[in-house]
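for ur thesis appendix - AAA+ ATPase domain-containing protein. copy paste whatever u need, i formatted it the way the template wanted (i think)
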Amino acid sequence: MKIIRDPSDDAQQAQNVNVAASDFFVATPEVDRITRRALAYLKAGYSVHLSGPAGSGKTTIAFHIAAQLARPVTMITGDHQMTSADLVGSASGIRKMRLVDNYVRSVVRTEEQQTTIWSDNRLTSACRYGHTLIYDEFNRTPPEANTPLLSVLAEGVLTLPKAHEGTQNFVEVHPDFRAIFTSNPEEYVAVYKAADALLDRMINVRVDLLDEDTERQIVSSRSGVSPEVAGVIVALIKRARAIEDGARASIRSGIAIARILASSAASPTPEDEVFRWAVQDVLHRSLDELLPMREELIQPVSTRTEQAAQVSTQATAKARSRK
Ligand SMILES: Nc1ncnc2c1ncn2[C@@H]1O[C@H](COP(=O)(O)OP(=O)(O)OP(=O)(O)O)[C@@H](O)[C@H]1O
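the 3d part is after this line
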């Protein structure tokens, strides 16, 4: 994702960015379908929740969708230490004013005034200026901290705490404000069960593990390895997922193996020690454990191409002999 800063932004907006797809972004029909589906709901004014397993591309697609909305993006990442103040804002100090009036020498009149200085936080500025909010892994934040979102999503109003110095203790949500949430429902470490009331205010778009062709293109695009090498790695990842009992082998693992191969000029063959190490350390499985793949896939790409050519020559010869 490319980050584009808008020089015309005022100080408040300068913390936020405009985004555009990076040169490495892969838009296959599957990615495009998810994007169009989410955009249909966002355009109707609804918030979207992209839910799916780790590495299914939720965050990347969220940015891609946000880029289509062509509004500045405010990004928040869920965190167990977050409070409502981290979303909405808080008092950041006190402003004191003292007036001493000694115009008549024998009379001294003093007047003191004290006001709280309020600082908007990211949700408030996104609501004020009509940004696209990307709230990544929102269920890592305690549900009570996310409470201000309820009235934002349902009534289009953000209520501010008393410390706010303005005359209005609420912000009317800008008509261009949109929110995209992401979460992994399979994650059970350091996450909270999201409040039903919040989930009920967003439309869930399921982002499952991407299809093989999309994963192959992503691995190739993010690492620079050829699509053939990426295909071998993705097949290994799929095999690891099929026999998995612990953490899921993600597309991130595939990108990591591919980048290691590319930077060491290694090849995805059983004889290549860098490849064996990378598979062992990234997937936590030895190449031998993934042996069924060995026969089919883990051969030098040139060998596989030669074999494919042989198979096709044999097939042509058979077809001719049948005539
Ligand atoms: N369409 C795509 N084009 C290019 N790269 C992609 C695409 N989708 C995902 N990726 C890459 O795959 C990796 C995982 O994607 P991403 O972080 O978006 O997944 P996620 O579902 O948000 O994962 P997590 O739940 O672990 O945060 C990243 O390195 C990302 O750059």
